[in-house]
Amino acid sequence: MSKTETDTHDIGEAGDRLSTAPREDGSDSGGGAVGGPVLGPVGWIRWFWRQLTSMRVALILLFLLSLGAIPGSLIPQTSADELKVQQFKDAHETLTPVYEKLQLFDVYGSVWFSAIYILLFVSLIGCIVPRTWQFVGQLRGRPPGAPKRLTRLPAYTTWRTASEPEQVREAALAMLRGRRFRAHVAGDAVAAEKGYLRETGNLLFHVALIVILVAFAVGQLYKSEGGKLIVEGDGFSNTLTQYDDFKSGSQFSTEDLAPFSFSLDSFTGTYEKNGPQRGTPRTFEAAVTYAENGGPDKKAVIRVNEPLQVGGSKVYLIAHGYAPVITVRDGRGKVVSSGPVPLLPIDNNITSTGALKVMDGYRDPSGKKEQLGFQAFFVPTFAGAGKGTMFSQFPALDFPVLALTGYHGDLRVDSGLPQNVYQLDTSKMKQFAVEGGTGKANRLLPGETMTLPNGAGSVTFEKEIKEWASFQISQQPGNGLALAGAIAAITGLAASLFIQRRRIWVRAVKGADGVTVVEMAGLGRSESARLPEELAELAATLHTEAPTAPEPAEEPAEESEGAEK
């Protein structure tokens, strides 16, 4: 028998049940070993279940889940941005078929990610439930009695005292209970145990992982997320038709949309003018007026990372741009279109592009109904004529210039095919000849007018330039649950790492010479330098109640020799 086996045999029940971890006795090992048992169907099922619910497999699955989330962060996801996914497919024609077969464009909804997720969920539940019942049984029981040989324990001390064994045990019991040990007298010794919060923290950590998994599932099933671009002075009501784009979980219903509305009063953006940070936003905020469920109007300011929380939803400020006010008149001077035209930024200095579409109300010089389209290119700070570039030099409205290219014909908005509101389909249109038929776009300053050829009308770039802000309205019902799970996981992990579960025994018996022999020993859940220190403190305290007995005096040497004669 090895030393480890001998120690375990001598310690016996004293070292048992310090942990709720399942034992590995090898009784259900595979049947491939020579002379081993042959497992039937039930035996294999039991073996598979024990493997699945082991902590080792749970950690492997958790690691695989983390690895599986990596492509979801690096590769565009259909659930987040279909346009980026399409752009990625167009740019990577070779990789696209492989990624599609592996479901890498929809990682979190893929079969393999769901399989890992469900297996981890089952593994954690199968691991936690039996350990919880075992731990409850330990809490209801008493610390085991002292082993026969306390000297084999990692922390040990002993001394002799003149006090009676009963007195020593009573003093030890009072001392240990005063130190918040669970203690009782078991035979000729006092058995005590402390540090149950370690196992409680361990179980709390694993329960918290389940809570986080549930929160993730709830968030994916019941979430909603949509975007809305709003020009200063316009508003938004939280209904499905108001969104520019909208995505939701499979169990989400439009009836779950929180009843609220808000309007964009103004957007304020200021930028660093000098130095290496030139153009960096310093102020980036949207002033809004909102109302919840038909209630009174309230004022609020939305900033980056400071969303508006209303009706169970969060409204995030995510982008900003300009909306030049453009007025279009026909050949008779009748206004056929007038208002701000939001344009999309294409660089950090808010160089912007977009389109203005006049779909109804316009007639050409002959009186025939026709549609107009204008491709717009806007720079808030123009470099100046002859500078060789039309791109903006600064994000603020220091020198705004608008370039327009006009078309007439059929916009194909009635073809039944969806169109991007910021792009023109010029397949059925002709470009207006400008500046002697060169085909170049007209550059306009605020207040200037571009006259269309052959009496087709005019386009005016009004002096007013409005700003727009883009908002993301999201509803994540699992966020609160996930936060609670994360806090519980950190708390449980801290308890399991920094609290040591340990047992202390104090044995007091009469020696062969009638003097009481006191033995103290300790055993921890894991080896720690703190256990001998704690045992020394306890021994010092008990020693004041049961001090060391004086050694018996030795007889003089002369008397001894006389006695021999």
Describe the protein's architecture and organization:
It is a single chain. The protein is α+β, with helices and mostly antiparallel strands. Helix content is 31%, strand content 29%. The strands form four sheets. Strands 4, 6, 10, 11, 12, 19 and 20 form a seven-stranded antiparallel beta sheet that branches. Strands 13, 14, 15, 16, 17 and 18 form a six-stranded antiparallel beta sheet that branches. Strands 1-22-21-3-2 form a five-stranded antiparallel beta sheet, covered by helices on one side. Helix 6 runs antiparallel to helix 8. The two termini are 53 Å apart.
Mean of residue pLDDT? 85
Bin the helical content.
25-40%
Structural class: alpha+beta
- Gyration radius from CA atoms, angstroms: 40 Å
First-last Cα distance = 53 Å
Query: Overall 3D geometry?
Result: elongated
Q: What are the low-pLDDT stretches, counting only 5+ consecutive residues below 50?
A: 1-9, 24-34
Report the sheet with the most strands, covering strand number, pairing sense and barrel closure.
Answer: 7 strands, antiparallel
Can you count the helices?
11
Transmembrane segments: 57-75, 111-133, 203-222, 480-499
Protein name: Cytochrome c biogenesis protein ResB
Organism: Streptomyces roseoviridis
Keywords: Cytochrome c-type biogenesis, Membrane, Transmembrane, Transmembrane helix
